[in-house]
Amino acid sequence: MQPDYTAILETIFAEVQPLLSQGKVASYIPELSKVSAQHFGMAVHCLDGSTYSIGDGGQKFSLQSVTKLFALALAFAREGDAIWERVGREPSGNPFNSLVQLEYEKGKPRNPFINAGALVMTDILSGRFVQSDIAVLQFARTIAGENSVDFDMAVAQSERMTAHRNYAIAHLMKDFGNLHNPVKAVIDSYCRQCSITMTCAELAKAGSFLANHGTIPWSGLQILDPSSAKRLNALMLTCGTYDAAGDFAYRVGLPAKSGVGGGILALVPGELAVAVWSPGLDATGNSLAGTYALERFTTLTARSIF
Ligand code: GLN
């Protein structure tokens, strides 16, 4: 029997209120620091088309690293297993913007969800498309079924001006021969990609193909074959929330991808996609209230992959 999602979202919404002041909004991208930590939104998109939303579930926010999932899906759909020659598929156990493993692992990032791996995805897509960020944007519009999805140029510009760490990562990979395009072009594309905004409702809808064996449930368009979709789900579980992936699996038990804008997309394979947004982050850069909300969601619905 389908749980009463409306009642469950209302319960979660009430429960998270005291947590909203506990997280810290990302400030290393100056434009993101302007967002209030008090926001909370959540939306569920079931594969049968039913949708549920609460709080700020209809408000746009900066997807940031959630877009790494779109870039990976696009690159994997186009290039298949060839991408694994340039990026690994192991959890890093390090912060998303860390450089430490790159040197002794000769410029090959641990996985596509940390910044180093995402920059390699941008580089791969740049070899395929005239502009990789436009390709990711078009892809995001297709899977969300929403042509109004767009970049936030103020956020992109703000990140570009302060992207010293990502420049360092990109230059190191360039030195090892794992970045084929000019560093500045890759960073610019990456920053625009990260600035894409969506609402929780749009994001849950956009993620639903990954809960549906790679096929968009509401249009029938196959984005990935079932085996590839299964593999992306596995990567989300093991690497989607950076060095908190183990704790996230323990507490939430779903494949997920987070971003420093405070968004998290999670999947209940075969059933639904759920998106949550709350800009206050924990020490690992994941939404504090968002993670708690998903923990309560899987508890109250008795759904997880375990
Ligand atoms: N654009 C951000 C960065 O590269 C994305 C990081 C994130 O969301 N974890 O730092």
From TrEMBL:
<dbReference type="GO" id="GO:0004359">
    <property type="term" value="F:glutaminase activity"/>
</dbReference>
<comment type="subunit">
    <text>Homotetramer.</text>
</comment>
<keyword id="KW-0007">Acetylation</keyword>
<feature type="binding site">
    <location>
        <position position="190"/>
    </location>
    <ligand>
        <name>substrate</name>
    </ligand>
</feature>
<feature type="binding site">
    <location>
        <position position="166"/>
    </location>
    <ligand>
        <name>substrate</name>
    </ligand>
</feature>
<keyword id="KW-0378">Hydrolase</keyword>
<feature type="binding site">
    <location>
        <position position="115"/>
    </location>
    <ligand>
        <name>substrate</name>
    </ligand>
</feature>
<dbReference type="InterPro" id="IPR012338">
    <property type="entry name" value="Beta-lactam/transpept-like"/>
</dbReference>
<feature type="binding site">
    <location>
        <position position="242"/>
    </location>
    <ligand>
        <name>substrate</name>
    </ligand>
</feature>
<feature type="binding site">
    <location>
        <position position="159"/>
    </location>
    <ligand>
        <name>substrate</name>
    </ligand>
</feature>
<dbReference type="InterPro" id="IPR015868">
    <property type="entry name" value="Glutaminase"/>
</dbReference>
<dbReference type="Pfam" id="PF04960">
    <property type="entry name" value="Glutaminase"/>
</dbReference>
<feature type="binding site">
    <location>
        <position position="260"/>
    </location>
    <ligand>
        <name>substrate</name>
    </ligand>
</feature>
<feature type="binding site">
    <location>
        <position position="65"/>
    </location>
    <ligand>
        <name>substrate</name>
    </ligand>
</feature>
<comment type="similarity">
    <text>Belongs to the glutaminase family.</text>
</comment>
<protein>
    <recommendedName>
        <fullName>Glutaminase</fullName>
        <ecNumber>3.5.1.2</ecNumber>
    </recommendedName>
</protein>
